[in-house]
Specification:
Arc Repressor Mutant, subunit A; Nonspecific Lipid-transfer Protein, Chain A; five-stranded mixed β-sheet; two-stranded antiparallel ribbon; 7 strands
Length: about 200
């Protein structure tokens, strides 16, 4: 906790878990975080060896912040905290969710017992952010892509990350959820894929 226990530190780490981000991208993902505090947290995380700075190559040359190998090893910690948090009777599923947080949530809530024999590519388009998912051997690997993924087996598109939640975790149809999540691909395969995800039971109050 001395290394990652300061306010905002784990959320900053979460937003870099799928790849390096520019300072402005971190600010946009965490709008309540001031530039001053973000700078301080990045400096501390860099000094402790969790974060490292690098430069993206042209044509989009920019300084970015990414996790070191040791920093990426925090994903299981984030997953356990995620499972623990949603079991709270006070958990509010309507709270804002970043696209990266949604992708990590899917990796966390995947029921690997249901994935036998499934191998497919999935595109996740959340607003202007695009992610490629690869389900293989019981693991869902996800990484950001600059443009929409070409010819995936399934494509899920929505304006915001929260638009995925009623369908993936509430198990209602996209139409019942307000039609904000569009699905492309075989309907039966899409239903089977969505069925792979579930939240743990709530703890009693």
């Amino acid at each position: 906790m001395e290394l990652i226990g300061e306010r905002w530190s784990l959320l900053i780490v979460r937003e870099m878990m799928l790849g390096a981000r520019r300072f402005s991208e971190l600010r946009a993902a965490l709008p309540n975080l001031s530039a001053k505090v973000l700078t301080e947290r990045l400096e501390t995380l860099e000094a402790t060896g969790i974060v490292e700075r690098s430069w993206r190559k042209p044509p989009v040359a920019a300084q970015v912040y990414g996790l070191t190998e040791w920093g990426r090893a925090l994903e299981p910690v984030l997953q356990e905290l995620g499972r623990w948090a949603v079991r709270s009777p006070l958990h509010d599923p309507a709270l804002p969710l970043t696209p990266v947080a949604l992708m990590l949530s899917l990796r966390t809530m995947l029921d690997t017992n249901k994935t036998e024999g499934m191998e497919l590519w999935i595109a996740f388009d959340v607003g202007d952010q695009h992610f490629a998912g690869r389900l293989r051997e019981g693991d869902l690997a996800i990484h950001p892509v600059g443009e929409g993924m070409a010819s995936p087996d399934l494509r899920f598109t929505a304006p915001e990350a929260v638009d995925f939640l009623p369908v993936f975790y509430g198990k209602v149809s996209p139409e019942e959820a307000g039609g904000r999540l569009a699905i492309e691909g075989d309907p039966a395969l899409a239903r089977r894929f969505i069925d792979l995800f579930s939240l743990p039971a709530k703890c009693t109050a």
